[in-house]
Write a structure and sequence with these properties.
The complex is a heterodimer of chains A (488) and B (200). With 488 residues, chain A is mostly helical. Chain A has 20 helices and two strands. Among the domains of chain B are: 7-80, Four Helix Bundle (Hemerythrin (Met), subunit A); 92-121; 133-167. In chain B, helix 1 runs antiparallel to helix 2 and helix 2 (28-48) packs antiparallel against helix 3. Chain B contains nine helices and no strands. The longest helix of chain B is centred in the first third of the chain and has 25 residues, at 52-76. The chains are: A mainly alpha (488), B mainly alpha (200).
């Protein structure tokens, strides 16, 4: 019956974001034409949250809210990357949203709530808080996809996303209920303990695990739960596609880490084989299907599927025959891959946004024809990003792929590494096709680019970061490993 | 068989049959009404499990609010059943295969010894004056306050999204603003123009 008021200090960033979200909502409601103010407030929210997360970081694992919330270095690191990517995405999206008259207060409010949902997921130590965070993020994103409500494609994409997302949530919940039935607790560290002491019921747990992994696979968008990705990526406004393709992937990674590594680590042998199946299918199907696309958003969607599959290969090589020596290396390579993917994804969709203007969406591959003649610098940025995604040395994407492959080989799956390399080679074809279109074809459209100065600067920096981090990936890699060290 | 078992089997039978009817009924309105029946029987089973608050909440929230709303939507929409049933036979083999697989797996896991009365014994008798509602409330506002508050934000998100998707500010609507009418001054309406006298 004794109840102690929970310690709010570790969760200060979440509380700050929640409080600021109301400020944003109200200022948008009561001011006429508050777009600039709301935008500024949203950015202040993200920077403030980053400052608080940095300020409250102490390198220890703190639990609060009856052990439902965990504050550790991995969470802090992923949250910082999340704030950064959301802030950049909102800046990129601004001109695009304004041209289409959907730069509303609701858009920024939904973006903040999606960020809050991601933060909750990243810091979840309880299946209930994990699920609440997931729903908060997903619901906000369904709304954002449908914002362009007069567009039939957008509405269709939102509908598909919503229905399939609800189905995936149902699968996840069913799995969670089975895990609860097998262990008698919803707390992730508690679940780990029950399984460790062999008091839980294995069969029921396995049954639950299958559903949980299926729900997770949907959120990550890996084969065979990938059907929504191409349609949603294509149908959503490009700025929202950019949003979906960046920070939520980090949150999904955090969810995988919390659920599988923090909670169900004793069942690693079982979930690793499931992840291997998902990863191999994703790499093969993602790369092959991307070749046939003429719409660049769709193409990047399929490329995202293959990247997520690649990331899963890192997650599945943590435990070999009960030996956990590889775990840190494998998981940190996955995390590095995820951060690298978010960086590349932001830059690639950023260039698409740069080419779009009022009344025109640069969606087709043909819109990239002769970009070099229109703006040689941004053609170079896009080329760098494409090289990086293809895994050509020495860009960040190469080292991301390299470190994952290292983990896979260390775990003894040589055939898997060879398959991944071969599929990446096939994948290089469609990335390099974009480069060929930009440099060797004549432009069909010679309208000058109309992006604002801040977007140009930031996009340039983003492109340079893809190259610069490729030259010195060691710092980021060791940061990932260090962040994970305490959480394993 | 004691009285409780009889009641349990009665509610369970009704629940299963009603659920079957939900998915087989041709008329969507009938399907919605069968769903109401299913909720009622489920709340009866919860009552047997001594979860009286959940049972009442199920009836009030789902039957009273959600299903009535749902029924209205179903009645308002012009649902073309023929179009929904299109492709039923072509999807049937895959759907049936997956469905049967799921049922077999579920019956292996759920039907076996794992969820029997030995593994999950019924809760013991509670002392006099024990209130299910009070206990739930205590937990909700103490131990589970974090997910509870998160749930409230999720609902807020749903509200914002619904407003963002449906609110249309119409232009050129001849609506009068009473506040502006009351606040009007003489100077806004009447303009005194001084004109030189006309000399002819």
């Amino acid at each position: 019956m004794n109840f102690v008021i929970p310690d709010f200090y570790p969760a200060a960033a979440e509380l700050f974001v929640a409080a600021m979200s109301f400020v944003v909502l109200l200022s948008g409601t009561f001011m006429k034409d508050a777009r600039n103010l709301v935008y500024t407030l949203t950015q202040i929210t993200l920077f403030g949250a980053a400052a608080i997360t940095l300020g409250t970081m102490d390198g220890q694992v703190n639990f609060t809210f009856s052990n439902m919330y965990v504050d550790d270095l991995m969470g802090d690191f992923l949250k910082l990357v999340t704030y950064f990517s959301v802030a950049v995405v909102l800046l990129y999206a601004r001109g695009y949203m304004r041209d289409r008259k959907i730069e509303t207060t609701e858009y920024y409010a939904l973006a903040i709530y999606a960020t809050l949902g991601m933060m909750v997921m990243i810091s979840a130590n309880h299946l209930l808080s994990l699920y609440m965070g997931l729903e908060m993020m997903s619901l906000s994103m369904y709304g954002m996809v449908a914002l362009q409500r007069d567009s039939v494609k957008s509405t269709e994409a939102a509908m598909k996303y919503f229905v399939l997302g609800a189905l995936a949530s149902g699968l996840l919940l069913y799995g969670i209920s089975m895990i609860y039935g097998g262990t008698g607790t919803l707390e992730l560290s508690g679940i780990a303990q029950v399984i460790y002491h062999q008091t839980g019921n294995r069969t029921v747990l396995m049954f639950g695990l299958v559903f949980v992994v299926a729900g997770l696979a949907f959120k990550l968008g890996v084969v065979p739960f990938h059907m929504w990705i191409p349609d949603v990526y294509q149908g959503a406004p490009t700025s929202v596609t950019l949003f979906i393709a960046s920070a939520p992937k980090l949150a999904a990674f955090a969810m995988a880490m919390r659920l599988l590594v923090n909670g169900l680590f004793e069942l690693a042998e079982q979930w690793q084989s499931m992840l291997m199946f998902l990863g191999v299918l994703s790499i093969v199907l993602g790369n092959l299907a991307a070749i046939a696309q003429t719409n660049i958003k769709r193409m990047l969607g399929y490329s995202g599927i293959s990247h997520m599959g690649f990331m899963l290969l890192g997650l599945m090589s943590g435990v070999v025959g009960g030996d956990r020596h590889f775990a840190l290396n494998a998981y940190s390579s996955s995390m590095f891959y995820m951060v690298a993917y978010v960086l590349m994804s932001m830059a690639s969709f950023g260039v698409i946004l740069l080419l779009s203007r009022a009344g025109f969406d640069a969606e087709d591959l043909d819109d990239f024809k002769g970009l070099n003649k229109r703006s040689s610098w941004f053609a170079a940025v896009m080329a760098m990003v494409m090289f990086s995604m293809a895994g050509i040395p020495f860009f960040i994407g190469f080292f991301a792929k390299f470190s994952v492959l290292q983990a896979v080989v260390a775990a003894g799956y040589l055939w898997l590494a060879i398959l991944a390399v071969v599929m990446s080679l096939i994948g290089a074809f469609y990335y390099l096709r974009v480069v060929k279109l930009m440099y060797f074809d004549e432009p069909t459209d010679s309208t000058p680019l109309t992006a604002t100065a801040d977007m140009r600067v930031l996009l340039s920096m983003n492109g340079v970061a893809v190259a610069a981090l490729g030259l010195m990936p060691q710092a980021l890699m060791s940061l990932c490993a260090y962040a994970l060290l305490a959480s394993l | 068989m004691d009285f409780q078992s009889v009641v349990f089997y009665f509610f369970s039978t009704v629940l299963v049959l009603a659920s079957l009817c939900v998915i087989t009924a041709r008329n969507p309105v009938h399907a919605a009404l069968f769903l109401v029946l299913a909720f009622f029987s489920a709340s009866g089973i919860w009552m047997l499990l001594r979860a009286e608050f959940l049972a009442i909440a199920l009836v009030m929230v789902y039957v009273g609010a959600v299903m009535v709303l749902f029924l209205f939507v179903v009645m308002m929409l012009d649902i073309n059943i023929e179009r929904i049933r299109q492709g039923f036979w072509s999807y049937l083999p895959v759907g049936a295969l997956i469905g049967i697989l799921m049922v077999v797996e579920m019956s292996i896991v759920l039907g076996g010894k794992y969820f029997g009365l030995d593994a999950m014994p019924a809760p013991g008798d509670v002392e006099e004056g024990y209130s299910n509602t009070k206990e739930l409330g205590r937990l909700l506002y103490t131990e589970y306050v974090y997910p509870f508050e998160l749930a409230s934000i999720v609902l807020l998100v749903a509200m914002i999204a619904a407003v963002a998707l449906t609110l249309r500010k119409r232009k050129n609507v001849k609506v009068i603003d009473p506040a502006a009418q009351v606040a009007v001054k003489r100077d806004d309406r009447v303009r005194i123009v001084s004109m030189p006298a006309e000399k002819d």
